[in-house]
Amino acid sequence: MSDLGSDIEQDSKPRSKYVKLVSSDGFEFIILRELAEISPTLASMLDESFEFKESKLNKIVLREMDSFLLEKVVDYLYYHKKFSDKDDVPDFEIPTEMALELLVAADFLNI
Amino acid sequence: MALNRRVKIRPPKRNLNDGVDIEKSWNVLSFAISEIYNKNASNLSFEQLYRKCYHLVLRKQGEQLYNNVKAQLRNHLLDKRSGLVEMIKSTLGSSTLQASVPFKADILVQVNKDWEDHCLCMRMISDVLMYMDRVYVKESQLPMIYDVGITLFRDYVIQYNNNEIGTILNHILMSGISSNRSGRLVDKFLIKSIIKMYESLVGDNDIGVNKNSDYEENYYLKSFEPFFMERSFAYYSELSNDLTKLENGLNYITRVNEIIIEEENMSVIYLPKVTFPKLIQLLDGILLTNNIAKVVDFKDQGFNFWVLNDEYKQLNLLYSLVSRIDKSYGFIQANLKKIVLEEGSSLEAITKESVRNNVNDTKKKRGPKENLTQYAIGWIENVCKLKEKFDIILEKGFKNNTDIQSSIESSFVEFLNQCPKTGEYLSLFIDSNIKKSSNNKTEEECEKVLDKCVIVFRYLKDKDLFEKYFKNHLTRRLLQQKSMSIDLERSMISKLRQEVGSLYTSKLEGMFRDMKVSKDLSLEFGNDKKTNFEANILTTTFWPLQINKDDDQVIYPDALVELKEGFEKFYLGKHRGRNLTWAPNFGSVDIRTRYKKRAYEINMPTYAGIIMLLFEYHGSLTFEEISEMTNIPKQDLTRHLQSISVAPKTRLLKKIPMTKEINPADKFIINENFESSTSKFKVLTVSLSNKVENDNERTETMASINNSRKFEVDAAIVRIMKSRKTLSHNELIAELIKQLNNRFNPPPSFIKQRIESLLEREYLERNSENRSVYTYLA
């Protein structure tokens, strides 16, 4: 269990409006909790009743994703929220070179 | 996306945890599961576990992971189970499986806690293993890991070792419910949560084979419900026995009602919806269907008691109880009917008794006829009271239920028509209420009484019989001006018309028309002649008067002859071609005369007047002489002589000898010493008021009724056949009964006889092919 390292801050009030997503290369993205909860995977991680480490710290370390990928994921979450209840939805820009990586990430996050 | 730019697609990083050790990953997960059970999840990183699972599944290790998890869960649950068994044993002692297990909340609490923990853990585990569920489990069509966990709980905790814990739990629950039933306080929510747990335990016994099993009995239905129903059955049966033993209907229905409410509340709180109807059915069956008939027979506080004592509240309660098991209230209907019939037949005795008491009280001498009349009136009055009583019972006790109402009504019809004289009695009753001075009722009160009469009338089958009596009585009231008010009479007629239509009342209305026309005529005639003469011109067909041929022979005194001829001339001048017949026995005259003390103005029947006028010229006359000189029929003569020479208050003539009976040889002279307290008075004729008929008269009436029925049936048959031309026998009879319903119910034999007669007279003929079909011959 030690491979998470000790770099996680003992921080953040319980149930803050924001959560922190950390990429494999150490970049931190602070986003609205409700955005994170778009992904069932992330939502489960944050589920308070389960009391996993992530939900306590409001911080999820995503070892599978580097910052480029995670940035794109966060982009997508905002995009999802912005257009989820609209009819006229523009395409989500996906750089061709990232397509496969994003596919895997989407599978992982179940979004 | 511009694919034509030929950008290189970066491959996803596969090498981060590449070469990940499957064994190691599993160990991490397995440890995590234990940690989750130990509530140490906060030390675990979801992301890490999820990732492990993710990689295992990606590396095609899903199956092994699934089975491993299952095995671990099983082991864990077996541990839990032993803990529970241990605890149960220590709580209950060694004798765990006896029939009566006390309600041990601790055990339930523990089981419930374990269950809730398990559920939470399973949710966490299944979330962590979400990727496996999503990918592997779906592909292989296995139950989701969460469901597996639930099934495992059932198989390895509750049902393990021959349903060991399950049985104990059932008993504990049941004893909890029992103590709740007997009014002790138990933690209902605890019971509820265990039952909820039972309901969640779905699935086949063998998890491995368990596929596509959407519809299965849960543990509650399979195990607890039958047990619960069995116990409830015993409980209700015992209750029912105890309650019936008390033989107190009031107690019974109040208790049953309470129990029903309790059981319903209980069910709502902790029983699933599926059980509710079953339980209620059981309850209704044992406590109501099986026993409700007994409630009637309880002497204290039984159905009969409530009805007789107007206990509306109890009846209402009973009604709502019966409504649970029988929406047509057959039970109530049958018993009410019995009571109505019993009460109805007991009226006879009651009325007789009250008439007897009345006679004893007043010590007045009355003829048997008068007593009978009194009885008739009293009887109808009691019938009305009885009806009123049941109306109120119906309204207050049975919410005006139409089924019950019709059964009450049919009972009334039955007992009213058991007595053949009801029609006559009813008419007499109306007579006594409408007559002037018979009681001190206001018109409104009379109206109410008449309304009740109409209800009794509605129940009569032989309405034509009633009509005959009513006509007779009405005639007397009209001609002798005895009605309290004509308006009242009219309103009675219009009530009858509303009830059975204008055909029925047309003759009665004709009588009123005659009265009105006569009044105008008399007024006109009186103005001409300057006399006060009232003639009633009565259409023969409307009035039930017997025209007596002897009446024509009556010799009138000169004063009256002049008047009579004058009126005849006047009337026939107005209406040519009509035939006037005089009916002096219905009229009256006013005579002003002087006795020793003072002058009197005496109103007396025409015949009496004729007799009195004889004494203008004759000092004394014998009965024979009077009869000769007047030609008044002997019977009438006797009656009138009685009223003016025997009746103590109006002894205008002196009879020699002074006996009550009138004999042909008796002599009569003016009673010089006559005196009266008022200067104006009326001579009442002996026995002219409306009374019950004696047997002879009755036979006569029945004969005449029968006669007129013949005509009515004949007329109805001809009417029907004329419009329908051909009809089968049964159709004809049905139609006939429908048409005559407003008047009487002809017995089939009577109808047959009339049809035969019409066949003979060639109004109808039988169809040559089908003998039961009639054809009308024009």
TrEMBL record, chain A:
**Can the keyword Lipoprotein be found in this entry's annotation?**
no
InterPro entries assigned: ELC1, SKP1-like, SKP1/BTB/POZ_sf, Skp1_comp_POZ
Per the record, the GO terms for biological process are: ubiquitin-dependent protein catabolic process
Entry keywords, A to Z: Nucleus
Q: What Pfam family is a match for this entry?
A: Skp1_POZ
Give the SUPFAM superfamilies listed for this entry. Answer: POZ domain
UniProt cross-references to Gene3D superfamilies, sorted A to Z: Potassium Channel Kv1.1, Chain A (3.30.710.10)
| Assigned GO CC terms | nucleus
> What residue stretches are annotated with the SKP1 component POZ domain?
18-82
Where is this gene product found? Answer: Nucleus
Q: Which family does it belong to?
A: Belongs to the SKP1 family.
PANTHER family found in the cross-reference section: ELONGIN-C (PTHR20648)
Output this protein's name: Elongin-C
Organism of origin is: Saccharomycopsis crataegensis
From TrEMBL, chain B:
Q: Which domain of life is it from?
A: Eukaryota
List, alphabetically, the InterPro entries matched. Cullin, Cullin-like_AB, Cullin_CS, Cullin_homology, Cullin_homology_sf, Cullin_N, Cullin_neddylation_domain, Cullin_repeat-like_dom_sf
Alphabetically sorted, this entry's keywords are: Isopeptide bond, Ubl conjugation
Where's the Cullin family profile domain?
421-645
Q: Mind telling me which SMART domains this protein's record contains?
A: CULLIN (SM00182), Cullin_Nedd8 (SM00884)
Which is a Pfam family this sequence falls into? Cullin
Q: Name one GO molecular function term.
A: ubiquitin protein ligase binding
Question: What GO CC terms are in its UniProt record?
Answer: cullin-RING ubiquitin ligase complex
Q: Which family does it belong to?
A: Belongs to the cullin family.
What this protein is called in its record is Cullin
List GO BP terms, alphabetically.
ubiquitin-dependent protein catabolic process
